[in-house]
Amino acid sequence: MHKDKQKRIRNFSIVAHIDHGKSTLADRLIEKTGLITAREIHEQMLDNMELEKERGITIKLKAIRLIYKAKDGEEYILNLIDTPGHVDFNYEVSRSLAACEGAVLVIDATQGIEAQTLANVYLALDQDLEIVPIINKIDLPSARPDEVKNEVEDVIGIDCSDAPLISAKNGINIEDVLEKIVSDVPAPTGDIEGPLKALIFDSYYDSYKGVVAYIRVFEGSIEPGMDIEMMSTGKVYEVVEVGINASKQISVDKLEAGDVGYVTASMKDVKDARVGDTITSHKNPANAPLPGYKEVVPMVYCGIYPAEGEDFNSVREALEKLQVNDASLIFEPETSVALGFGFRCGFLGLLHMEIIQERLEREFNLNIIATAPSVIYKVKKSNGEILSIQNPTNLPPESEIEYMEEPIVEASIMTPSDYVGAVMELCQDRRGTFKNMEYLEETRVVMHYELPLNEVIYDFFDALKSKTRGYASLDYDLKGYALSELVKLDILINEELVDAFSIIVHKDKAYERGRSIAEKLKDAIPRHQFAVPIQAAIGSKIIARETVRALRKDVLAKCYGGDISRKKKLLEKQKEGKKRMRQIGSVEVPQEAFLSVLKYDDKK
Amino acid sequence: MEELALYIHIPFCKSKCYYCDFNSFANKDEIISKYIKYLIREIKLYSSTMKDYYLKTIFIGGGTPSFIEGKYIYEILEEVYKHFNIDNLEELSIEINPKTIDLEKLRIYKDIGINRISVGVQSLNNNILKKIGRIHTTEDFLKTYKLLRKVGFSNINVDLISGLPDQTVESILSNLKIVNNLEVEHISFYSLIIEEGTKFYTWYNKGELILPNEDEERDMYHKGIKYLKSKGYHHYEISNLSKEKYECMHNLFYWKLKPYIGIGIGAHSNIRGLRYWNTADFNKYFAYIDKGRLPIEGNETIDKTMEMAEYLILGLRLIDGVYKKDFINRFNISVDEIYGEVLNKHSNNGLLTIDGDNIRLTEKGIDLSNLIFVDLLPE
């Protein structure tokens, strides 16, 4: 009976490059299986957060159960597990893939394979998933399905001969996808009677239920009242509720091997239900956890400070609230001479960082200042001490440093072959080491480079997009640390060192970066009553200098009876602008200035 | 009884100047007579509510009030006299354009009691006048000026702008010299503002309008002011100078935050702690008045905090500045208690002079007055 049910379960993910139509396809599948009506689908069902919608990126994954009556007359349970589509969230992707037996690979018929497609396919193949290729956007005039099929076969080596040709947007051939899932994705196996083994692939905090963990049960079963144990921590909880996600959460009596669903157990903190951890039975524990658990470690750090007039405590509260649902966000208080009290925050990557910054501003209405992102440098001091530095301010004086190491990533860049030269130039400029290059087809290549992470987090991605007209895509993985000649670059505004602008750079890049930062600050800092010198320095040596000219005129020439309201509005606007400034010494520095120094300069 | 200033808006022009963002229209001549009728009805609507005020000044502005027939001006003022207390009316100004004025109109103005004429001259260089979209020439102005004196006007203002395209310090000084030789009583000496919605704004943003740079413009302003002061003009407001006792009383109402009402489309009023403004749309204006109500479209309550800020922001536009004792008399609180920190900051910055009871802008403070004003605005 139970075994019979297991045979009718299909657990699958959809993998795709950003914009290739993953979320749209998910919507269509949901619509097609009659779970909810088309009217209820707000654009993209699975993407909950406002920000995700805007960026077209899925950040937090979710699972949804679809019921599909296949052409063979049987009713199947299709568990669709959504995955984030960005390199920053690779680990989360790998865990949700681990919960599946198959992956639907969506490829844009106009674009072909992209770096992230490949990265995700490799992740799926790592998990031994059955890959179901789908060619999307076939109704676009520029679609070239046959070429794309060949490309997939050549590059990934999977058979595309009967890959469904669909348009997720316009609902063309969606049923073919469902049939393919039923026929090609293997049913789960696993002993329902065995000791419980369930994989957590996502969790979030609910103010009523506490932490809700999304799980895939591999062995045994889980039901309310049962004592469960987190295998990474040994913590024990009593299950309050188990259930499935249909159009809403529906509690069920139990979840068994093969099932995908959720569990609540009065857990207070998402850290208690870490993605990748294995849940087992406290009474009858499994002898080994499911493979692959790792604690996520932040790769990128930056300082987050309240802007002028903003409260330190409200920033802390907001970060705490975000952390409740984001175990990978870490933060601790720090102080800056220039910016006062704030937080050093750690992120999975640049996108993760930007998302958190935007959510602080948008969802919490906070005015914040973020400092330049930094990676973790390893410093061996002459006295033998080894330090991990993620805030440039903490770098010891040069005389005390024996050597420094910086993180290196293995990057794959996929690009039309026309841009190979431009990409090489860029990677070389960013201290990359060329590894190899493969032709995917005549006009497309994937280039492998080793790049220092600190170059990648600067403006690499923007530069890559700009130099390849947006065609190139990037994927990277941390490789390890390497010796490097690094220096601390300081910025002085009006003769005063502004610690929040300090960065660690390779010594060969220091002059260029110093000049570029000084130039950008010159444009970003408004004119003051006095001339404001901006200097870049290494130690006591000034390497670049710019001056913001003194303001000569800021006066309303006319102000009569009919003008007062309007002129007052102008002044209020000016005042509002000032609020977004940070007073550093006698100079007002706008928040944008902090951002501007990080932005890729197209003019270069 | 309290004194009151009255502004009357005539939103018609022969053509629109390229820098002008005022509420004024060319090619709407067909509704002039209708507009005047409604203006008169608006005046009537006020009659019963203004019993506790007496008019001190009237200002007919625009647009170009001299563009419309003289009889209209006559009718309007006649109506004002019927409904307002004019026992103490002292100053009655009208704005004119040298191209749209003649002896007949001036005689009518004189008859109905107008005693101050403000001439929109802007520049005395014909090529500049053309570049900024003025319809008159320097010669038109000189002719008009003679006519004004002939009819017997003894209080004449001339508007001039600094920072115009092709203008130099020399050209502006030579303009001022002419004006000084004519012995005009009052000079409004503005620096050009590029306002949104004007042709200048479009051209400027496209890079098609080349203007003197900030340093040159400030040079024009300061050298111009210095010259006029040396000729006996009293620099009494950021952009205004006059012979002794010829300060514009009407405008002083604005800067001293005294009550005023404005009639006509888009006109603003500030009375009894309320600032409000009329609709700027002709059709709505007519419709409101047809319903027998004032054509008010929006308002802003000026609470004490805002009133104190405005008092200083507007008061500091006056070169003599504001007096601490006046402040305390008006608000029952000392200016230092509320603004001490801001005032000290800008005194240290060199933008303000605090001289015993008196607070005023320094020369640099004039150039950068917004830096102070922004700090004075309530949070």
UniProtKB/TrEMBL annotation, chain A:
Residues 7-189 form the Tr-type G domain. GO terms for molecular function: GTP binding; GTPase activity; ribosome binding; translation elongation factor activity. One of its GO terms (cellular component) is plasma membrane. Keywords: Cell membrane, Elongation factor, GTP-binding, Hydrolase, Membrane, Nucleotide-binding, Protein biosynthesis. It is found in: Cell membrane. GTP binds at D19, H20, G21, K22, S23, T24, N136, K137, I138, D139. Its EC number is 3.6.5.n1. It catalyses: GTP + H2O = GDP + phosphate + H(+). It is a peripheral membrane protein. GO terms for biological process: positive regulation of translation. Its main location: membrane. Pfam families: EFG_C, GTP_EFTU, GTP_EFTU_D2, LepA_C. Belongs to the TRAFAC class translation factor GTPase superfamily. Classic translation factor GTPase family. LepA subfamily. NCBIfam families: lepA (TIGR01393), small_GTP (TIGR00231). Required for accurate and efficient protein synthesis under certain stress conditions. May act as a fidelity factor of the translation reaction, by catalyzing a one-codon backward translocation of tRNAs on improperly translocated ribosomes. Back-translocation proceeds from a post-translocation (POST) complex to a pre-translocation (PRE) complex, thus giving elongation factor G a second chance to translocate the tRNAs correctly. Binds to ribosomes in a GTP-dependent manner. This is Elongation factor 4. It comes from Anaerosalibacter massiliensis. The lineage of its organism: Bacteria, Bacillati, Bacillota, Tissierellia, Tissierellales. The gene is lepA.
From TrEMBL, chain B:
Keywords: 4Fe-4S, Chaperone, Cytoplasm, Heme, Iron, Iron-sulfur, Metal-binding, S-adenosyl-L-methionine. It comes from the Bacteria. Residues 1-231 form the Radical SAM core domain. InterPro entries: Aldolase_TIM (IPR013785), Coproporphyrinogen-III_oxidase (IPR034505), Elp3/MiaA/NifB-like_rSAM (IPR006638), HemN_C (IPR010723), HemW-like (IPR004559), rSAM (IPR007197), rSAM_sf (IPR058240). GO terms for cellular component: cytoplasm. GO terms for biological process: porphyrin-containing compound biosynthetic process. SMART domains: Elp3. It is found in: Cytoplasm. One of its GO terms (molecular function) is coproporphyrinogen oxidase activity. Belongs to the anaerobic coproporphyrinogen-III oxidase family. HemW subfamily. Probably acts as a heme chaperone, transferring heme to an unknown acceptor. Binds one molecule of heme per monomer, possibly covalently. Binds 1 [4Fe-4S] cluster. The cluster is coordinated with 3 cysteines and an exchangeable S-adenosyl-L-methionine. This is Heme chaperone HemW. The lineage of its organism: Bacteria, Bacillati, Bacillota, Tissierellia, Tissierellales. The gene is hemW.
